[in-house]
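Might I ask for a little of your time on a matter of protein folding? What I wish to show you is a protein chain and, alongside it, a tokenised description of its three-dimensional fold. I should value your view on which stretches of the chain appear to form regular backbone elements. You will find the record immediately after this paragraph:
***
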Amino acid sequence: MNRKELVNQIFSKKSFLCVGLDTDTRKIPEFLLKEDDPVYAFNKAIIDATAPYCVAYKPNLAFYEASGVKGIAAFERTVNYLKENYPNHFVIADAKRGDIGNTSAMYARTFFEEYDLDALTVAPYMGEDSVTPFLGYKDKWVILLALTSNKGSHDFQLTEDKDGERLFEKVIRRGQEWGNDENMMYVVGATQGKMFEDIRRVAPNHFLLVPGVGAQGGSLQEVCKYGMIKDCGLLVNSSRGIIYASNGKDFAEAAAEKAKDLQQQMAEVLG
């Protein structure tokens, strides 16, 4: 999906919501465990319930890899279900890959050829040759980790060099030498609030993937106030706050209500 198509989806649906599919068999409703594939059954119900209110889905690979072959099979079924039934939704593999060039090339082949996904989160620590193999695919996106919402983000990401440039700013600036605003986004945690102003000074036109709204306590209003641009430029992710809204038989309906609430807030901002 290219930028124009993504922006069209955002403004036609009045939503820039991404639903994170961080599906844990220890947290899904117990009655689903009787299914042949509990993770897929859960995901399918969540997708059907929330699709009207979001423009993107983000399965987190760790939650599927934790179950071995069964988990990967559930991931593949989920991806295929999305592509067959909701082809206009943007699908992100949250895998945080990034390695030496030939290894990154294999990761790129996995997610962009084998699974034909729209985007992949990438860790930039190993630099240019670990990122550029992902950038050779038409209408595919690299989502580079920049300023995250976890406590440990302060360990490295805010470190300043002798000129006062912080590491996350260097990552964003250097990333723009490798890709552009048509094939690269940045991960910026919703809990960073006013720091979005600093992000926008370095990356005024790039899309930002913003996790941390909901269970992590990030403010949608602050994200929009400091981070939104003319064509929106935001994909705001909520995972636990939506998919685990209920642990009962009404889990899908509860997820839909949470997604709808966020979508309505987004519609107000988009106007």
